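[retry 2/3] Fibrillarin-like rRNA/tRNA 2'-O-methyltransferase: previous attempt timed out, resubmitting with same input.
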Amino acid sequence: MSESIKSVKETKMENVFECEYEDGTTRLCTKNLAPGYSVYGERLIKYNGIEYREWNAFRSKLAGAILKGLKENPVKKGVKVLYLGAASGTTPSHVSDIVEKEGKVYGVEFSPRVVRELILVAQRRPNLFPILADARFPQSYMPLIENVDVLYVDIAQPDQTDIAIYNAKIFLKEGGSLLLAIKARSIDVTKNPEEIFKEEASKLERNNFDVKQVINLDPYDKDHAMVLARFKG
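[retry 2/3] Fibrillarin-like rRNA/tRNA 2'-O-methyltransferase: success.
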């Protein structure tokens, strides 16, 4: 698709780029760690000899958060990430691109069927490690994972914030970052989502987190927010 590309520019986020097409539209993109292969049907872009993957914000909450004004992306080159709710690998594959071969992405997913798809993605990504496990029981995967710089949590559970806190206490380094995708409708369908976002952020504050930002992900994900927090240990 290089003939339709006007430019690829760096953003303020490390290893996150903006691809501008000839028609003037722009999209986020990441350098493809597995050239020639897409993960979820995303467009592959070649520019100045480098292949990029278009990053669809309607398919990835992290991309949505970046477009909605995330102040800092703790996912950077060389960091270690524990990703709870890795699913079939859409966002984990972009995280894999960003951290490059020097980094590691431990992808925990509960569904055996979905993990099979994640394994196929990981076969071409030496820094992505699929783990079939329940995030509510981190002891089951404790032997497989070292302490990490970033904990990314995207799980549809009523106690999703408690699960994030529990895993952080075991795996997240002091001063490490949490990216928590809050799914309001999984917590309480009767409450205003904004109220839920505030309550869950307060819960983090009570558990040694410094909440840096709460981003409503609409229109990319309705009734969802991304929380960026720093773990004080």
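[retry 2/3] Fibrillarin-like rRNA/tRNA 2'-O-methyltransferase: The mean pLDDT is 94.
[retry 2/3] clearing retry counter.
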